[in-house]
Amino acid sequence: SPKFDDTTTFISKELSVTVRIKNYSDSAISNFQLEYILLNWSYYQPKIDTFTNTLNVGDSIDFTFTKKIHCPIMYYTLQAIVKLNTDINHGNDTIRRTYFGYNDYTVIQTSKGNYFWLGQNRPNPAISQAQIDYFIPTEGIIEFRLYNVLGETIIANSTSATAGKHTINVNTDKLAAGVYYYTLHFNNQQATQRMIIGRR
């Protein structure tokens, strides 16, 4: 019976997946397969591993898969399965847990219940150019603004964008070194990130 470690935080980086296995049977078990998969991301293939040690009756152990997970942005469901051929009760072989993935992204929930996000500029600090990724769930008008620390608008652009991920290219070559903030307006809501501009 697998169980996720409740203290694990899943974010959009490559991380290890650890499950806790307990032997509820009346005999020791060994050499069986385990699998994990992201249920709502069709491109993600199952990751299969083998437990080669022996687990005695009533004992439990934490098992870490050798293949790591690269977590997606926003909600995803992680499922782990113990595959034991001699198991006559498969009711406790599967566990599912839903997480929210994020990393250097500002994620905003819209009034329709879906999400858009604004990424951290790269490179950061920016020297002469910066690229900023964003994602919108539906087609619409987005407004991008870059501000200095005094709140003065340095760049303001508005455009129509299709649903999906996009990249904004910002020329920072003529901007003074320092801290800036940029925002993305979409569907009457706003996401904000902080940018640092440096000089060689």
Write a structural description.
- Helices cover about 0% and strands about 60% of the residues.
- The protein has about 200 residues and is mainly beta.
- It folds into two domains: about 1-100, Immunoglobulins (Immunoglobulin-like), CATH 2.60.40.10; about 105-195, Macroglobulin (MG2) domain (Immunoglobulin-like).
- The strands form five sheets. It has a four-stranded antiparallel β-sheet with strand order 5-4-8-9, with no helix packed on it.
- Strand 16 and strand 17 (about 190-195) form a beta hairpin.
- The protein is elongated and about 70 Å long.
- The N and C termini lie far apart (about 55 Å).
- The model is unreliable at about 5-10 (pLDDT under 50).
Q: Short description, anyone?
A:
Helices cover 0% and strands 58% of the residues.
SSE blueprint and pairings:
Elements: E1 2-4, E2 14-15, E3 18-22, E4 29-38, E5 47-55, E6 60-64, E7 69-70, E8 74-83, E9 94-101, E10 105-109, E11 115-119, E12 129-136, E13 140-148, E14 153-161, E15 164-171, E16 178-186, E17 189-197
Antiparallel strand pairs: 1-3, 2-7, 3-6, 4-5, 4-8, 8-9, 10-11, 11-12, 12-15, 13-14, 13-16, 16-17
First and last CA, distance: 56 Å
**Treating each run of at least 4 consecutive H or I residues as one helix, how many helices?**
0
CATH class of the largest domain: Mainly Beta
- CATH-derived architecture of the largest domain: Sandwich
